[in-house]
Amino acid sequence: MNHVSNPPTDPTVERLIEQVRAAQADAAALQIRGGGTKDFYGGALTGKPLELGALRGISSYEPTEMVITARGGTPLLEMEEALAERGQHLAFEPPRFGARGQATVGGMVAAGLAGPARAAAGGVRDFVLGACVLNGRGEMLRFGGQVVKNVAGYDVSRLFAGSMGVLGVICEVSLKVLPVAASCESVELGCNQAQALRLLQSWTRAALPINASGWCAGILRARLCGAATAVRSALQRLKNESAAGLLEQDLAQGYWAGLRDQTDKFFVAGNDGTPQASLWRVSVPATCPPLDLSGQILIEWGGAQRWYWTDAPAERLRDVAARAGGHASVFRSQARTTDFLTPVSAPLERIHRALKQSLDPAGIFNRGRLYPWM
After folding, report:
1. CATH assignment of 2-179+351-359?
2. Rounded to an integer, what distance in angstroms lies between the CA atom of residue 156 and that of residue 352?
3. Of 24, 224, 250, 287, which is least packed with CB atoms within 10 Å of its CB?
4. CATH topology for 183-261?
5. pLDDT (tens digit, 9 = 90+) per residue, 308-346?
6. Measured distance CA(370)–CA(374) in Å, rounded
7. Where in the chain are the domains?
8. Rounded CA separation 23/47 (Å)
9. Where is 267: in which H helix or E strand?
């Protein structure tokens, strides 16, 4: 970790530092704002907005090194377009909520959310190489680096992935990128939930190039990505063993984009207009059989991520998930709750509190967005 010894000359960064130092002096809350596309997620928004819209731009991009560095307020769309021109992408498929072009790179990392390819490619944290962060004292800190083989010490930069902004302002981040797969095909077949889970486990054991999967309302879909020969071989096997049919490319792309950005009809109208229903994200071992939970369900990540539209009590969902070896969190709800995540154990809470105290001692950043006591 290196402190920036001299104040940055960038007027945008200087303004952010001034705002943070003023807030620290007054112990006033600040709400870190990028594109605002994830305002629905996490605890309630509090404090004066700390706008990052002007902190934008790709700082560097080395396609041969498969590393891109961008400022926190850079539109995610801008980064993805630059990568696509060189046949590369963010393999973890971050969601692009809101209007096209609103989501930002900093918000993507802070939320720590990944799309359909998460189970095969990894999550946001796995691709963070380094970050430049503004802490609660108004200091610029740099963690990690801009190379894939960065193994010197503990990688603090990855702590900011999924932190919901409670540890500091992500002013710049370096990410590992990957080439787009040479071939991608999707299949679908009709089956019930138990059958879908058994098939997904069987395909995993067979080491098929399954890049993404989704089951909902009696239809199982899977995306195969990789070398053309490997994809063709896997397709033939799936057709022979499970009578899976090939999904037309345009339909397939629309389906996976719908899961990634939550524009699929399950997410848009999954609660059938029931005001009491909330969208729950349940994480369990992929080998776990169907859970004893009511409501509409969509299964991703080979069975490891299960979405429920339900009005069941939070205690019920968390108990069922815990007994299955997982956890449950509220993703969208009409009645916003302060404990959208499963409470952590006492030892983990002490670690969280220590990190918060170290990086944001006055507690000015995104109060309550991650846990009500942060």
Report:
1. 3.30.465.10
2. 13
3. 250
4. Alpha-Beta Plaits (3.30.70)
5. 999 999 999 999 999 999 999 999 988 777 778 988 999
6. 7
7. 2-179+351-359, 183-261, 276-332
8. 10
9. helix 265-269
